[in-house]
Amino acid sequence: MELFHVKKDIPFMRYARSTIFVSIFFIIASIALLATKGLNLGVDFTGGTMMEMGYPAAADVPAIRNHLASNGYADAQVQNFGSSTDVLVRLPVKAGATSAQLSEKVLAVLQQQQPKVELRRVEFVGPQVGNELFEDGALALVVVSIGIVLYLALRFEWRFALGAIFATAHDVFIVLGVWSLFQWDFSLTVLAAVLAILGYSVNDTVVVFDRIRENFKKTRMTDVAAIMDNAKTATLSRTIITSGTTQIMVLAMLLLGGEVLYGFALALTIGIVIGTYSSVLVASPIVMWLGVSREDFIKPPKEESGAVV
Fold it and tell me: If 0-12 CB within 10 Å is exposed, 13-18 middle and 19+ buried, where does residue 242 land?
C-alpha cells in the first residue's frame, strides 16, 4: 500500500554527515544529563503513601488534583480506580510525617471539597519495594536490549546490525535525556513506553534495511549512497503511513487520555518522531561509513568440477 509514489530518489544521504553529528551531540548531552541530573523517579520507584478514596458520585479527577495542588500537594498523583466513584491518590514520602498522618491531612483537604468522601484503604509502599521495582524495570530494559541485539546480529550482516543497534540506542538515550532535562516524573508507565519505543524503532529500521539489502543484491550500481537513497525513497510512503497513524493514536491518548496516560503518551510521541528520524537519517549513514559495498552481498560463483570421461 502506498499513500504516494515518488519518481525521483530523495538525496537523504547528502545530509548524512550533518545528521550523524547532530545525533552524536544529542546522545552525549543525554548521557551527561543522566549522569548529572538523573531521572526524577516517581512514587512507583521511590515509595510513598497510597490512598483509596470513595466518592458518593462520579469523581471529578482533574478538580481533585487541582484542589490538592492548591493545598500544598502538587506532587500527588490522582486517578480513577475501578469505577468512576473510586479514586486512588498516591503521594511521595514526606519528611517528618508518617503514612497515617499524611493520609489524615489529605483526607481533611479532600473533605473540604466533598464532605462525604470516604477513606477506604491506606497503604505504604516502602523505598525497598520502590528500589525492587526500579531494579526489575532496569533488568527488563537490559533483557529486551540484549534480545534485540541478538535478533539484529542474526538477521543482518554485521555492518547493518551495528547501524540498527546504534539507531535504537540513539532513540532510547534521547528520550531518557529529555526526561532528565525537564525532570518529568519517571514512572512505570513511562518505562513501558521506553520499551515500546525500542520495538518500534527496531521495526522501522528493519524495514528500511531490508529494502537496502534487496537493492544491493539486484542492482548493478556501485554508488552506496544512491542505493540507500533509492531504498529510503521506496519505503517513504510506508514510513509516513506507519508513523502517521501511530502518532494519531498516541496524540489522542496525549490530549484526551488524562493525567494517568500523559507520561506514557508523551514518551511515545517523542519516541516515534525520534525513531522515524533515526531509521532514515542515522542508521544508514553508520552502515555506509562502516564500509558496506555491493560485493558483500554477491555470492562467489561455484567452481564447476571437470567432466569425467
Answer: middle
Sign of torsion over alpha carbons 161, 168, 208, 149: positive
Direct distance between the N- and C-terminal alpha carbons of the chain, in angstroms, rounded to an integer: 56
**The model's pTM:** 0.78
Contacts of residue 216, defined as CB under 8 A and 6 or more positions apart, other chains included, come to: 227, 292, 294, 296, 297
Average pLDDT of adjacent 10-residue blocks, the chain of 309 residues:
69 86 93 91 78 88 90 84 82 77 88 88 71 78 85 86 90 93 86 89 88 84 84 87 91 84 91 91 89 70 52
Measure CA 156 to chain center: 23
DSSP-derived 3-state class of residue 272: helix
Q: Would you say 13 and 227 are in contact if contact means Cβ atoms under 8 Å apart?
A: no
- Domain boundaries along the sequence of the chain: 12-40+129-295, 48-125
Class of domain 48-125: alpha beta
What is the pLDDT of the chain when averaged over all its residues? 84
* Contact residues for 37 (Cβ-Cβ < 8 A; gap 6+): 180, 181, 183
Q: What is the CATH number of domain 12-40+129-295?
A: 1.20.1640.10
